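Section 3.1 - Work completed
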Amino acid sequence: MRILVVEDDPNLGALWGDVLERAGHAMLLVDTEAEALKLLQSTAYDLVVLDLCMNGSQALGVATLATYRNPLCKVVVVSGSAEYSRKTLFAMSPAVAAAIRKPVDIEDLVEVCNAVQSNERRAPVPCLESGCAEFRQ
C-alpha cells in the first residue's frame, strides 16, 4: 500500500514512517500541507495519515485532494487538539475514514491503517468506535 504521511513534527513523522515501512508499505513523509498538496497533484496514494493541525492551521484540504486524485484513497486523521471530537472530524470531510488522538500508540497506528485500507470505501454512515480510534462503517 502506498502511504503519504503528513506530519509537521519531524520525530513523529520519522517514527511513523519507519514503522509503516517495516510493516511493508511504500511510504513518503512530508512536513507541510503545501508539500502534501503538491505531491497529491501528481501522485495517487492508497492512504494518507494526516496531522490535522499543522503549524496552527487545519490541513483538511489534503484529505479532499487525496480522494479527488484517487477515490479509493482513505484518510486517517491524527489530532492532538481537544477542540474537535472524532465525530466532528468526520463531519469536516467525507474523505476521513478514521480518527486517532495524539499521543498515538505506534502499534495502534499500524493496526488502524491496515483496518482502514482493508475495508471497501463506502458512503459515510454512523461511526464505530474501537479502542484508540473511531472508524466510518
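Second construct:
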Amino acid sequence: MERLCLDCGEAVRGRTDKKFCDDSCRNNYNNRLKSENGIVFNRINLILKKNRTLLSKFNPDGKIKISKKKMVNAGFNFDYYTHTYQTQNGKRYIFCYEFGYLALNEEDFLLVKREEK
C-alpha cells in the first residue's frame, strides 16, 4: 500500500508511520492547521478584548449602574464573556476577565470589578 504525503500528495518512502515526504511538507501542513484555527481564536479574542475595554471604561471606580442601550450603542457584545459567577441568593454575574455585570432588570445593569484577594 502506497502512502501519500498529507501536504503535497507525493509518495512517502521510509518508516511505516511516516506521514510527510520531508520537513518542509510537515511544516507547511502544521502551519496551515494553526492558521485556520488561529483565525477563529483571534476573532473571539478581539470581541472579548473590546468587551473588557468597554466595561473598564464605563466602570472606572468598581461599581456603577448603566443602561443596556448605552452598552449596545458602544458596541458591547453580550454573547461573549469569559465566565459567570452565581451567588448564594441566585444572582448571576457575567464576567469578561475581571470586569462583570449583573442584570438588574431588562434595561439596566450593575457593572462590577472583581477584587483580587
